[in-house]
From TrEMBL:
Active-site positions on this chain: 137, 237, 310
PANTHER family cross-referenced by the UniProt entry: MURAMOYLTETRAPEPTIDE CARBOXYPEPTIDASE (PTHR30237), MUREIN TETRAPEPTIDE CARBOXYPEPTIDASE (PTHR30237:SF2)
Protein's recorded name: LD-carboxypeptidase
One Pfam family here: Peptidase_S66
Biological process, per Gene Ontology: proteolysis
GO molecular function, one term: serine-type peptidase activity
Entry's family note: Belongs to the peptidase S66 family.
Entry keyword set: Carboxypeptidase, Hydrolase, Protease, Serine protease
Length: 340
């Protein structure tokens, strides 16, 4: 992972090149502040209980970014399989957003539990103090709720205790530190990772990028914590779900009228989601067949195999920001800067 010296060198190069953030596209939006070397950031455990080792790794990762970690008061808590009670986990989130010395908030890990804290968050305080929220997996519940209630972008990126390989870090640095609007994904990244994407329906579309874990999103449907998806670019990923379960969740989105209102759709990685086999024979539909069945006929730009999900070296992408999807090139271009 890139260390503090590389961060400082990259920032100096960007300044020398005259690179600056670009104003928001087509709407007024409060944005989080960009990160700088030496900034203090919060570490929270909003979902499943985390180990001492995970907390240590998270602090080391944040330090390697040139940032100064501050642990939430309850990160070591345990309540059944959760990292403390709902009230304790919510209190840590609220405390990070009210503290003016904290510039961003990183989840240590996911698991399950973020949806339980949504009614307990101080949304007035969060709206008044924009800060990047960073994480993925179960953190999808927070990303969606922030998109619906907070009005500023967040970052779907590795959790602090996960591996931050160069692709994840480079994407994150350009958006969160330098305020650049990068082009994410495409053939070069596919060759680098060995994960080839495929176009389902060609074309380009611009819209607000919303998404994350499909299981979490399907459970938020019909709740006030899910943002309006009309014209949005929806991205999805999941882990350890057989194709019939992916079929069931995509069908739920279809029946809810979600898929038909989208501007574009991206299906990322579904790790350990293969269909069961009997010898050489696949039992039922493959994952690709399920995805093609639901997303191919929509008639909107769409591609599958994006480098997003429960994988090493995943893309860091800006939730709630306006992006351009190019389904033929299989890229996501940030139309607006994520930070101020």
């Amino acid at each position: 992972m890139t260390g503090r010296r590389q961060v400082l060198a990259g920032m100096a190069a960007a300044m020398a090149a005259g690179i600056a953030p670009v104003p928001a596209f087509g709407r007024r939006q409060t944005k989080p502040p960009r990160l700088r070397s030496g900034d203090r950031v919060g570490l929270i455990a909003p979902a499943s209980a985390v180990s001492t080792r995970q907390i240590d790794i998270a602090q080391q990762t944040i330090g390697g970014m040139g940032l100064v970690p501050r642990l939430g008061q309850n990160v070591a808590g345990v309540d059944g399989y959760l990292a403390g009670t709902d009230a304790e986990r919510a209190a840590d989130i609220n405390a990070m957003f009210v503290d003016p010395s904290i510039r961003a908030v990183f989840a240590i890990s996911g698991g399950w539990g973020c949806a339980r804290v949504l009614p307990l968050l101080d949304w007035d305080t969060i709206r008044a103090n924009p800060k990047l929220l960073v994480g993925y997996s179960d953190i999808t519940a927070l990303h969606c709720a922030f998109a619906a209630r907070a009005g500023f972008p967040t970052m779907h990126a590795p959790n602090a205790a996960n591996s931050w390989q160069s692709l994840s870090w480079n994407n994150f640095w350009w958006m969160a530190f330098a305020g650049i609007r990068p082009v994410l994904g495409g053939a070069e990244d596919e060759a680098l990772t060995g994960r080839n994407g495929r176009t389902l329906q060609g074309g380009k579309a611009q819209g607000r990028l919303i998404g994350g874990n499909l299981t979490v999103i399907s459970t938020l449907m019909g709740t006030p914590w899910m943002p309006d998806l009309k014209g949005a670019i929806l991205f999805l990923e999941d882990v350890a779900e057989e194709p019939y379960r992916i079929d069931r969740m995509l069908q739920q989105l279809r029946l809810a009228g979600v898929l038909e209102k989208l501007g574009g759709v991206i299906f990322g990685q579904c790790t350990r989601c293969s269909a069961p086999r009997e010898g050489d024979r696949v039992l039922g539909f493959t994952l690709d067949e399920v995805v093609d069945h639901h997303l191919g006929p929509l008639g909107i730009p769409a591609f599958a195999g994006a480098n997003i999900g429960h994988i090493q070296g995943q893309l860091s992408v800006p939730v709630g920001a306006v992006v351009e999807l190019d389904a033929v090139a299989r890229t996501i271009r940030a139309v607006e800067a994520v930070v101020a």
